Amino acid sequence: MQLHLKILGYIYAITGGIGLAMVLVMINPDEKSKLEEIAGLDTDPLLGYAAVILLILFIASTLSLIEGIGLLTRKPWARLLGLALGILSIIDIPIGTIIGVYTIVVLWKKETKQLLNK
């Protein structure tokens, strides 16, 4: 079970780090002018939607990174956060579903609860 916790910790830490890197790249103000130049689009109406999507991605990535660190350091709160993130990630077909089910199966076991509560 320790191996499964370590695998989950790395999965969440890596996906959280990648998501935060994507947010930082997308915040770049030069991207707006490049999009207007390439596609010939007026991006002003799209900025509100993009801001909401970036905020959601930022929150999800931060929670994922925190979850990964929590699992790797065996914090007791990481189990509940992991179960919540696992349930939410089931919606993201197909990879999120696989990760979500794996997360729920690993974190639901009594052995995992005992490992994280030491």
Written overview of the protein:
- It is a single chain.
- The protein is mostly helical.
- It has one domain (2-116).
- The protein is built from six helices and no strands.
- Helix 1 crosses helix 5.
- The longest helix is centred in the first third of the chain and has 26 residues, at 2-27.
- The mean pLDDT is 87.
Which helices and strands, and how do they pair?
Elements: H1 2-27, H2 30-39, H3 47-72, H4 77-89, H5 95-108, H6 110-116
Helix pairs in contact: 1-3, 1-5, 3-4, 4-5
What is the arithmetic mean of pLDDT? 87
Give the number of DSSP strands: 0
Largest sheet report: none
Helix content: over 70%
Number of domains: 1
Number of helices: 6
Spans of 5+ residues with little confidence (pLDDT < 50)? none
Tell me, briefly, the overall form.
Answer: elongated
Rg, alpha carbons:
18 Å
Which band does the percent of strand residues land in?
under 5%
Gap between N and C termini: 14 Å
Order of helices and strands: HHHHHH
Category by helix and strand content:
mainly alpha
